[in-house]
Write a structure and sequence with these properties.
This protein is mostly beta strands. Helix content is 1%, strand content 55%. A hairpin with a 4-residue loop joins strand 19 and strand 20 (277-283). The protein is globular and about 50 Å long.
């Protein structure tokens, strides 16, 4: 039986209670999850408002919520620039949290402004989510340039690491596998590619994986050459490495842009409970939302 994914209801704008300093920043890449106690948690990329790109030095803040919409953010960043040589000297971005065997860790991208280069990095954490940086994820040298935006899938005894990387002036989805979250990670073929003449014919970036009745769907971000980013989905095969079907169009189109806003909808995470599936995303690289996702 063929199914499709669709949006139900109206988007809810995320609300953040934070210090004046953090509130004055862009709060992006909302990675949301439920902890073992059933409390809503979030990791966000906090970016200062600045005219120069070199001054937009991102860091990662954590927060909590009772309802998955209004989050109280910590005053102190969980991940700040520096401490991984110079790999993240100018920014810590795009956090993905995974908890395995009771141990949380974060995969994130570090930015070096002088080299104009990003690296995929990771850090372990204690029970209070205090992170200890652990360096690069992918072995060097690597064909994956500026890797970021991690999605993780555990299949049988193997981890699949999927991520965005740069190639020939566009973004693609790369993949590597390992028996352990600590690596080493072995590069694989790209799990899916851009489609000529479609809405995702130029850029691709992976998003979270959701499941219904043992069917795995990856939400992903795609864009055309004019960088109008939208959110779509692929249904993965049992191994998680092949695509069974793929959305013909995006899940939704964001409202028309005004002023200097960018025409972007970009999915960062998903939370599934017994009753509902929520996807968390940003619009125009400045506003964070969640909306209900259903399968029909």
């Amino acid at each position: 039986m063929t199914h499709t994914l669709g949006i139900t209801g109206e988007p809810e704008r995320l609300q953040f209670d934070a210090s004046a300093e953090v509130s004055a920043m862009y709060l992006l890449s909302p990675f949301v999850w439920l902890d073992d106690a059933g409390e809503w948690r979030i990791a966000v990329r906090a970016v200062p408002h600045a005219a120069r790109a070199a001054d937009k030095i991102a860091r990662v803040h954590l927060g909590r919520s009772d309802d998955g919409v209004r989050f109280t953010l910590d005053d102190t960043a969980a991940l700040s620039p520096g401490g991984n040589g110079d790999d993240d000297s100018d920014g810590c971005e795009d956090p993905t949290i995974v908890v395995h065997a009771g141990v949380p860790r974060v995969f994130y991208s570090g930015w070096n402004q002088q080299r104009q280069a990003g690296q995929l990095l990771h850090a372990s954490a204690d029970s209070d989510l205090v992170f200890t940086k652990a360096g690069r994820v992918l072995s060097q040298p690597s064909r994956f340039v500026n890797p970021k935006e991690v999605s993780l899938l555990h299949v049988d005894d193997r981890w699949q690491l999927m991520f965005e990387y740069a190639i020939a002036g566009r973004s693609a989805v790369g993949m590597a596998t390992s028996a352990s979250l600590d690596g080493p990670w072995t590069p694989q073929l790209d799990p899916f590619v851009r489609r000529t003449g479609k809405w995702d014919d130029f850029h691709l970036s992976p998003g979270p994986v959701v499941t219904w009745d043992h069917d795995r769907y990856m939400l992903y971000n795609g864009a055309n050459k004019t960088t109008q980013w939208r959110i779509g989905w692929v249904r993965l095969d049992r191994t998680g490495t092949g695509v069974i079907e793929r959305s013909d169009g995006p899940l939704f189109t964001p409202p028309p842009v005004t002023g200097d806003a960018t025409d972007i909808a970009f999915c960062a995470s998903a939370v599934q409970t017994d009753d509902v599936t929520w996807i968390y995303y940003t619009v125009s690289d400045k506003d964070a939302f969640r909306v209900r996702l259903d399968r029909t």
